[in-house]
Write a structure and sequence with these properties.
One of its GO terms (biological process) is carbohydrate derivative metabolic process. GO terms for molecular function: carbohydrate derivative binding; DNA binding; DNA-binding transcription factor activity. Keywords: DNA-binding, Transcription, Transcription regulation. InterPro entries: Homeodomain-like_sf, HTH_RpiR, RpiR-like, RpiR-like_SIS, SIS_dom, SIS_dom_sf, WH-like_DNA-bd_sf. With about 280 residues, the protein is of the alpha/beta class. The protein has 3 domains: about 80 residues, Orthogonal Bundle (Arc Repressor Mutant, subunit A); about 35 residues, no CATH class; about 150 residues, Glucose-6-phosphate isomerase like protein, domain 1 (Rossmann fold), CATH 3.40.50.10490. Helix content is about 60%, strand content about 10%. Strand 1, helix 10 and strand 2 form a beta-alpha-beta unit. The chain is globular and about 70 Å long. About 30% of the residues are buried. The mean pLDDT is about 90.
Amino acid sequence: MDERIPRDFETLRATILDRRESLPKRIAQIAAYALDNPDDIAFGTAASIAASAGVQPSTLIRFAQQLGFDGFTSLQQVFRERLRERNSSYDERLQALRAKAEGGAGHRAIFDGFVAAASTSLNDISRTLDDAHLEEAISLLAKAQTIYVLAKRRSYPVATYIAYALGKLKIRNQLIESAAGLNAEMIAFATPADAVIAISFSPYAPATIEEARTISEQGVPIVAITDSSFSPLAQFARVWFEVAEADFAGFRSLSATMALAMALTVGVGEKRRDTARRRKA
């Protein structure tokens, strides 16, 4: 394979994002779809992917060739390899944990491993967090009439905590989640006077990315928490934070993400109180 052809998903994603401004319209359309829906690209047929992305099947071939591949099938292999690398089963992860426990230290070794991973994550975010970004995000959220909270799958516990804490602080908020499938209707109420906290990590939940795209198109400012400057969520955000969580035996913690979520939530509450005091003075 040519050295210039992306060999793994991260390199492929970086290449696409680097070239996205210069891609022809239809190829840019499938490129955006590919980054937002990598699982669909891995498992779909050319016809089904093209239909979902709203392009002709021939566009998939031209997209692959733009990136140096000889055809779409070769490009698709990169997406399939990503799943093989990332989606080790929970049974395999538990086996790794059991092996550590049976190595002599017992289940305390498992606990210590998770504590070490959490400590690493917290130390990393403490060292890398941009103070100006934190202040900008808090100021943006504090001015919002309603704060919408958007997350799915692994990120969902963080979203529910944010919604809970905002409620306790008497700050109007809306968790974008509906058992009745009314997410689109909830999102339709958001205006530029509101704001969104969106959270997603690789492999990015397609629903989160699509809903963030819709909200962004409505002119609603987004504060994003994600794991890379190449995250599809970052492109929609007014302010975004990169959080790299350490893992233990394949189980990734949410320690740093939760710490940032708590700081944003409490910071918004403090900012609003300060504003109210100044108005009364």
